[in-house]
TrEMBL record:
This is Ribonuclease HII. It is found in: Cytoplasm. A divalent metal cation binds at D22, E23, D120. One of its GO terms (molecular function) is RNA-DNA hybrid ribonuclease activity. One of its GO terms (biological process) is mismatch repair. The lineage of its organism: Bacteria, Pseudomonadati, Kiritimatiellota, Tichowtungiia, Tichowtungiales.
Amino acid sequence: MDMLAFEKEAWNSGLFFVAGVDEAGRGPLAGPVVAAAVVFEREPLAGGEAFAGLTDSKALTERKRELFFEQLMACPFAHTAFSVIEPSEIDSINILQATWKAMAESLSGLDRLPDLALVDGSPVRGLPCDSKNIIKGDAKSLSIAAASVIAKVTRDRLMLELDKKHPEYGFAAHKGYGTKMHLKAIREHGPLDCHRKTFRPISELNQGELF
């Protein structure tokens, strides 16, 4: 598969600043949702050999994700930006709106607004530029794959910081997802500010119910 097929289609139509956008952290019970945007410059990227093997962050090992993250952040022809939406805002506007906001902010944080944003998954409203959604785009577009890695690694590092503050919750292991370990910790110690109070079963705790 040509991981630059969608980028080349846009480039050939005269759209040169083409971003890939993806998010990490929609499903967890704790921590932020993070979105990232990446634009590769057309000529230096050439055939994409510089990032051979880069794909959906979920399909990469942690070590590979970290290596690609460092390469992307140091790459002179990769423009990157990310946005972090905290749990309190997720609870206020809901996770879908928070995800869309993070994606919009990451695009606005680039050197300039893209001519086109390639978005992983379903269509996104409220973006500051034209967009094209691609189902499973993080495995089909190099730009989206790069964004998925930056979003995932950025969020994981934030969860590691939370783990240092609250080691009894095990955030380093589960990254905020609703594992048995995490649910047990919530039952024993109660929810923290970093927990999403509108997500079940934490919302049930707030109503005085047990889970």
